[in-house]
């Protein structure tokens, strides 16, 4: 039996089976929980926001990421973005940002990282890791 659909707004019809997100609530969750998660991780490992460490966030949207960056007191140079080239690529956004924006550095240096993902379903997580002259293949677009 088909779910009964109802008008929500002009041109918008939904049933109880349709997924609906409240954009401002999602944005608020991202800027709050993303920043808190990185702060908790940094406190646990005694990490200071200064230095050459890279902070890579899920590439949800530029305004959200810039808000998190500023809340954490990070510089633009510490936070690589690939939104301008690829948009929101879901779970691939963190490695894609690193590979597309930091390829030479990752290959030539030992790099300290903090990465933070957050998204739909009110999920989030952060990780602290170090790379040491890793092999970074070229991006292949199909």
Task: Briefly say what this structure is.
By secondary structure, this protein is an alpha+beta fold. 38% of the residues lie in helices and 22% in strands.
Q: Decide which structural class fits the backbone.
A: alpha+beta
Strands of the widest sheet, in order across it, are 3-4-5
Please state the CA-atom Rg, rounded to the nearest Å: 18 Å
- Overall mean confidence score, pLDDT: 90
Total DSSP E strands: 5
In total, the number of domains comes to 1
Distance between the termini: 41 Å
Q: What is the percent of helical residues?
A: 25-40%
Largest sheet: 3 strands, mixed
CATH topology: Peroxisomal Thiolase, Chain A, domain 1
What is the overall number of helices?
A: 4
The CATH homologous superfamily is called Thiolase/Chalcone synthase
Broad CATH class? Alpha Beta
The stretches of 5 or more residues where confidence is low (pLDDT under 50) are none
Overall 3D shape:
globular
Strand content: 15-25%
Query: Architecture, according to CATH?
Result: 3-Layer(aba) Sandwich
- The helix/strand order is EEHEHHHEE
């Amino acid at each position: 039996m088909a779910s009964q659909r109802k008008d929500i707004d002009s041109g918008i019809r939904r049933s109880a089976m349709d997924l609906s997100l409240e954009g401002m609530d999602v944005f608020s969750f991202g800027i709050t929980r993303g920043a808190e998660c990185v702060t908790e991780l940094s406190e646990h490992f005694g990490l200071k926001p200064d230095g050459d460490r890279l902070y890579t966030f899920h590439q949800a949207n530029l305004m959200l990421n810039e808000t998190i960056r500023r809340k954490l007191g990070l510089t633009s140079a510490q936070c690589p973005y690939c939104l301008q080239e690829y948009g929101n690529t879901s779970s691939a956004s963190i490695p894609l940002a690193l590979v597309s924006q930091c390829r030479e550095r990752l290959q030539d240096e030992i790099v300290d990282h903090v990465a933070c993902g957050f998204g739909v379903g009110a999920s989030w997580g952060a990780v602290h890791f170090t790379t040491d002259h890793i092999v970074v293949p070229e991006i292949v677009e199909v």
